[in-house]
C-alpha cells in the first residue's frame, strides 16, 4: 500500500463506505452532513444519489474524491484510501457547472489536467481527440467555451474528466441546469458512453426520472442528519431506449424512489 498502487478490490467492489460520519463545525453549531452511511459500489455500477437539498449528496461525493475528510468511519476506493486513490488517478470529477476556463479553447481545457500531470505532448493531443470523439464533440477542439451551447460545454467537461482514463467518474448534478430535451439527449449519450467504457459512475441528481433511467443502483438519502434511507437495485435492462420511461417496470421503480423521498422528507 505504501507505493500507492491500488490493490485489487475484494470481489468487484470499487467503493465501500462503512459507518461513515461527517459533521461540520459551524458558528451555528454542528451540522451532521452524513450519519452512519454504509454503501458498496460494484465495478461497472451506475449509482445515483438522490435526496432533498442539504442531505449530504455532494459531501459524500467529495469524501470519495478526497476533497472532504470524514469525522469517523472509513471509505475505500479500489481498496485504498481516497487520498491514495486520488494519487493513483482513480477518478475523474464532473461538477455542477461545466467550469471550463474561458481563455482556453475546448482542447486546451481538456489538456489542462494532462499538462499538470506531465503527460507527453503527443499523448496529450491523442487523448484530447479520443475523448472529444467519445462525447460527440469531434472537431470542436479549437473553439472557445462561449462558442458552445450549455449542453456542449457540459459534454466538454465530461471529456475533461475522461481524459486521464480514470475508471471511476464522480458526477455532481452535471445536467441540472439544462432544459429537458437537452438533458434527455445527454442522458442517452452518457449511458452509451458508460456501456462503451465500462466505467463505474457515481451521479448526484434531484430528478427521479433521471436517476431511474440512468442507474443500476439508486441511493435515496434524507437530510438532518444526512443518511441513506433506501438502496434500490434496478431491474431494468442495461440497454435503455428513452421510451423505457413509459414502461410499468420504470414507473414502479420511480414510485419506490418517490416513496423513499417522501418518508425521509421533513416538511418544515
Ligand atoms: N464546508 C461546509 N461547512 C459547513 N457546512 C457544510 C459545508 N459543506 C456542506 N455543509 C452542510 O452540510 C449539509 C450537506 O450539504 P451537501 O452540499 O452535501 O448537500 P446536498 O445534498 O449535495 O445538497 P444540494 O442538493 O443542495 O447540492 C448541508 O446542510 C450543508 O449546508
Automatic annotation (TrEMBL):
<dbReference type="GO" id="GO:0016887">
    <property type="term" value="F:ATP hydrolysis activity"/>
</dbReference>
<dbReference type="GO" id="GO:0005524">
    <property type="term" value="F:ATP binding"/>
</dbReference>
<dbReference type="InterPro" id="IPR003593">
    <property type="entry name" value="AAA+_ATPase"/>
</dbReference>
<dbReference type="InterPro" id="IPR017871">
    <property type="entry name" value="ABC_transporter-like_CS"/>
</dbReference>
<protein>
    <submittedName>
        <fullName>NitT/TauT family transport system ATP-binding protein</fullName>
    </submittedName>
</protein>
<dbReference type="InterPro" id="IPR003439">
    <property type="entry name" value="ABC_transporter-like_ATP-bd"/>
</dbReference>
<keyword id="KW-0067">ATP-binding</keyword>
<keyword id="KW-0813">Transport</keyword>
<dbReference type="InterPro" id="IPR027417">
    <property type="entry name" value="P-loop_NTPase"/>
</dbReference>
<comment type="similarity">
    <text>Belongs to the ABC transporter superfamily.</text>
</comment>
<keyword id="KW-0547">Nucleotide-binding</keyword>
<dbReference type="InterPro" id="IPR050166">
    <property type="entry name" value="ABC_transporter_ATP-bind"/>
</dbReference>
<dbReference type="Pfam" id="PF00005">
    <property type="entry name" value="ABC_tran"/>
</dbReference>
<feature type="domain" description="ABC transporter">
    <location>
        <begin position="17"/>
        <end position="248"/>
    </location>
</feature>
Amino acid at each position: 500500500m505504501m507505493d500507492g498502487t491500488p490493490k485489487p478490490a475484494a470481489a468487484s467492489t470499487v467503493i465501500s463506505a462503512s459507518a461513515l460520519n461527517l459533521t461540520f463545525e459551524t458558528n451555528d453549531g454542528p451540522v451532521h452532513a452524513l450519519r452512519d452511511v454504509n454503501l458498496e459500489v460494484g465495478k461497472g455500477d451506475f449509482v445515483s444519489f438522490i435526496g432533498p437539498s442539504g442531505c449530504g449528496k455532494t459531501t459524500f461525493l467529495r469524501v470519495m474524491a478526497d476533497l472532504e475528510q470524514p469525522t469517523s468511519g472509513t471509505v475505500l476506493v479500489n481498496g485504498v484510501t481516497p487520498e491514495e486513490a486520488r494519487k493513483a488517478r482513480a477518478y475523474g470529477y464532473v461538477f455542477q457547472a461545466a467550469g471550463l476556463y474561458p481563455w482556453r479553447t475546448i482542447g486546451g481545457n481538456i489538456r489542462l489536467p494532462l499538462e499538470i500531470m506531465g503527460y507527453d505532448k503527443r499523448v496529450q493531443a491523442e487523448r484530447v481527440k479520443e475523448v472529444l470523439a467519445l462525447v460527440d464533440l469531434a472537431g470542436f477542439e479549437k473553439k472557445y467555451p462561449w462558442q458552445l451551447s450549455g449542453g456542449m460545454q457540459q459534454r466538454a467537461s465530461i471529456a475533461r474528466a475522461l481524459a486521464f482514463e480514470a475508471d471511476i467518474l464522480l458526477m455532481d448534478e452535471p445536467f441540472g441546469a439544462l432544459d429537458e430535451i437537452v438533458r434527455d439527449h445527454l442522458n442517452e449519450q452518457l449511458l452509451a458512453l458508460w456501456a462503451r467504457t465500462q466505467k463505474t459512475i457515481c451521479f448526484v441528481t434531484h430528478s427521479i426520472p433521471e436517476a431511474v433511467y440512468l442507474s443500476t443502483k439508486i441511493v435515496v438519502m434524507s437530510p438532518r442528519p444526512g443518511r441513506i434511507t433506501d438502496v434500490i437495485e434496478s431491474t431494468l435492462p442495461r440497454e435503455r431506449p428513452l421510451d423505457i420511461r413509459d414502461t410499468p417496470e420504470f414507473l414502479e421503480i420511480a414510485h419506490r424512489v418517490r416513496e423513499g423521498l417522501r418518508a425521509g422528507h421533513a416538511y418544515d
